[in-house]
Design brief:
Helix 5 crosses helix 8 (114-120), helix 6 (75-82) packs across helix 7 and helix 8 packs across helix 9. The protein folds into three domains: 2-120, Winged helix-like DNA-binding domain superfamily/Winged helix DNA-binding domain (Arc Repressor Mutant, subunit A, Orthogonal Bundle); 122-191, no CATH class; 195-383, Vaccinia Virus protein VP39 (Rossmann fold). The chain is globular, with a radius of gyration of 23 Å. By secondary structure, it is α/β, with parallel strands linked by helices. Strands 4, 5, 6, 7, 8, 9, 10 and 11 form an eight-stranded mixed beta sheet that branches. It has a three-stranded antiparallel beta sheet with strand order 1-3-2. Helices cover 51% and strands 15% of the residues. A hairpin with a 2-residue loop joins strand 2 and strand 3 (109-111). It has 18 helices and eleven strands. The structure holds S-adenosylmethionine (SAM). S-adenosylmethionine is lined by residues 173, 190, 194, 228-230, 253-254, 257, 272-275, 289-291, 294.
């Protein structure tokens, strides 16, 4: 096995992002092909444990304790650091090492691996709490919700497994605003998942960005408005990549998101509810990243209509989201789709994007796919 593994690792090192993800997908396929019925049954039996044990690990500061120590730690030392019983801890550590969340170095001795460092980071910790506390109960509620609703499609964001799980009438975002710790976790996760790779080889955007002079004229319209842009990570990245855009970038989000933002040089932060008319007219680009997939068609069309009403003939909406393939979607995209479905959102294929755009008086001008293996793309919308 070792030479084969070395070959795969060497291949991964020389692969681009798409190649790396392809290797992971193939290895997972091999794993499932090799699994016998007993392996599959044990996997089903333990499927809920991972997030629960990660939550315990985060609660007791396990991942940060391991990450802070340059040398491996004995169970007794970790128990001391985390104020836990060594007997209880030993069994949890054994499980976390067997599931590759931490690394076992000798009997009763553990250290970090790459995954542990991700989990020890505040953004990794935010993902653990989001997965366990916000999504966990919702996923558990799905079978009963579907049965009660006679397995009908989910078309509203106030009648979903989310409301059943959290015993609320509020939509997911309304509920999160009332639970600031969960809203904060979401913002941290979104910032962690940010990146400006979408601009790479995106001719329409790059050519327009390059035309912009450094001096901002007082009457000038913003170049890009990041609608629902959270903590502004996209504007920060764009300003780093295209300093000439600074002074012409705006991040909009709910007041609860923008009020905590430290000032970002060259970026205006503005409180805005995208179900209200868009106050910035005639911007060159309105950028919506991971927004549309949070909403059912009716609400998604409303957001687009509000944006369309502010556009001029040169304005474009850039939807940064998934464009699902019509067949053979991978596990990441299908997982994301069901997680969105649980609170009323959905991932969409090209036909669904086209129909949504039309519903809002817009047309799909082009689709710039920037990570083919994850179907991540910019769907460019223009006025009809
Ligand atoms: C999934 S996050 C995406 C954040 C960011 N665009 C990104 O890709 O990192 C959804 C964002 O929509 C914002 N949001 C939800 N409802 C909103 C509303 N009615 N008006 C404006 N922003 C809203 C949330 O606060 C959150 O920042």
């Amino acid at each position: 096995m070792d030479p084969i593994i070395a070959q795969i690792q060497a291949l991964a090192k020389t692969s681009d992002e798409a190649g790396r993800l392809n290797i992971i997908r193939t290895l997972r396929q091999v794993q499932f092909d090799l699994q016998g019925p007993k392996d599959s049954l044990m996997e089903v039996a333990g499927s809920g444990l991972v997030t629960a044990m990660l939550r315990v690990g985060a609660d007791i500061g396990l991942f940060t304790s391991l990450a802070k120590s340059a040398a491996p730690l004995k169970v007794a030392e970790i128990a001391e650091l985390t104020s836990t019983s060594p007997q209880l801890l030993e069994r949890i550590l054994r499980y976390l090492a067997a599931t590759n969340m931490i690394k076992e170095t000798a009997a009763n001795e553990y250290t970090t691996n790459m995954v542990t460092h991700t989990l020890a980071d505040p953004k990794g910790e935010a993902m653990i709490y989001h997965a366990f506390d916000t999504h966990g109960p919702v996923v558990t509620a799905m079978p009963e919700f579907f049965a009660e609703n006679k397995y009908q499609d989910i078309t509203s964001n106030t009648s979903t497994p989310f409301q059943k799980a959290h015993n609320t009438k509020l939509s997911c975002f309304e509920w999160m605003l009332q639970h600031p710790q969960h809203f904060e976790s979401l913002q941290k996760i979104m910032t962690a998942l940010g990146g400006s790779e979408w601009t790479q080889d995106f001719t329409l955007f790059e050519s327009e960005a390059q035309k912009i002079q450094s001096t901002v004229q007082p009457s000038e319209k913003p170049f890009l408005v990041d609608v629902g842009g959270g903590h502004g990570h996209q504007c920060i990245r764009l300003g780093e990549k295209y300093p000439n855009l600074l002074g012409r970038l705006v991040v909009q989000d709910l007041p609860e998101a923008v009020k905590k933002l430290a000032p970002i040089a060259g970026v205006k932060a503005e409180a805005y509810d995208f179900f209200q008319p868009q106050p910035i007219t005639g911007a060159r680009f309105y950028y919506l990243r991971r927004i549309m997939h949070d909403w059912p068609d009716n609400e998604a069309a409303k957001i687009l209509r509000n944006t369309a009403a502010a556009m001029n003939a040169d304005s474009r909406i850039l939807i940064d989201d998934t464009v699902l393939p019509d067949a053979g979607a991978n596990w990441q995209a299908t997982t994301a789709d069901l997680l969105m479905m649980a609170f009323g959102g959905k991932e969409r294929n090209e036909a669904q994007w086209t129909s949504l755009a039309k519903d809002a008086g817009l047309r799909v001008e082009c689709i710039h796919t920037y990570v083919a293996s994850t179907y991540t793309a910019i769907v460019v919308l223009a006025l009809e």
